[in-house]
Amino acid sequence: MQHSEARVIVALDYPNQAKAEELVDRLDPTLCRLKVGKEMFTRFGPPFVESLRKRGFEIFLDLKFHDIPNTVAAACDAAADLEVWMMNLHASGGRRMMVAARERLEQRSHKPLLVAVTILTSLSEEDIAEVGFRGEPADNVLRLANLTKAAGLDGVVCSPLEAVEIRRQIGDEFMLVTPGVRPKTATQDDQRRVMTPGEAITAGSSYLVVGRPITAASDPIQALKAINAEIDGQ
Ligand code: C5P
């Protein structure tokens, strides 16, 4: 399996760099990519990302930028300097913010993938009403996914349960990156609405973000291989 075919992105959520590196040493960059989020990036910064890249891994930098267009475009440019494979921002930052970020990345010789978060899956209908969104979360997800497509981004981060409808409306040329994935044999942890890896791929996911089913497994590489085998079986 080559980089380009590996569809699992392992979420590194550790307060401790050595623990993360211990796990990473047991993984294989031809079988997965890695996601670095706000916690690890805030603690360990660009040198941590660099150390993962030196081990041969492609990185999804999950910092969910949301600010004025100029600031987000500059932040995306800075992330691209780290030679990450994928980065993200909040679609609710608006069309001009997304276009500014995309255009800045397009000036580079190698453009990383740029995807948007629509509505955080942690938000209920009451939560989004309180911040001024009307209607159900699912309708807002679709509206923001369509806006993301119109702004020329590569795709969105979404729940696998939202993937079918987004695929139906937006088509095949749009990347869907989905957390909330649990193999049948794993515990759900604090995830509530989950799909198995095979179900998520069938629903239209392009990449699966998987954390604890791999990071907390006694044999992480075996857990990863089992997920890849399930995906390949689809
Ligand atoms: O351990 P687990 O597989 O639940 O980790 C999933 C990863 O995806 C975590 O880094 C979590 O923050 C992220 N995520 C999520 N649900 C979302 C968005 C991101 O679980 N809606």
Q: Give the biggest beta sheet.
A: 8 strands, parallel, barrel
Number of domains: 1
- State the end-to-end CA separation: 16 Å
Q: Helical proportion?
A: 40-55%
Please, what is the oligomeric state? single chain
Strand content: 15-25%
Name the overall outline: globular
CATH architecture, by name, is Alpha-Beta Barrel
Helical segment count: 10
Q: pLDDT average, as an integer?
A: 95
* CATH superfamily membership: Aldolase class I
Class per helix and strand makeup: alpha/beta
| Total DSSP E strands | 8
Q: What is the element string, with H for helices and E for strands?
A: EHEHEHEHEHHEHEHEHH
Ligand list: cytidine-5'-monophosphate
Name its key features.
alpha/beta, single chain, globular, 8 strands, 45% helix, 234 residues
3D architecture notes:
- With about 230 residues, the protein is α/β, with parallel strands linked by helices.
- It has a single domain, classed as TIM Barrel, CATH 3.20.20.
- Helices cover about 45% and strands about 15% of the residues.
- The protein is built from 10 helices and 8 strands.
- The chain has helices spanning about 15-25, 40-55, 70-80, 95-105, 125-130, 135-150, 160-170, 195-205, 210-215, 220-230, and strands at about 10, 35, 60-65, 85-90, 115, 155, 175-180, 205-210.
- An 8-stranded parallel beta barrel has the order 1-2-3-4-5-6-7-8, surrounded by 7 helices.
- The radius of gyration is 17 Å and the shape is globular.
- Cytidine-5'-monophosphate (C5P) binds near residues 11, 189 and 191.
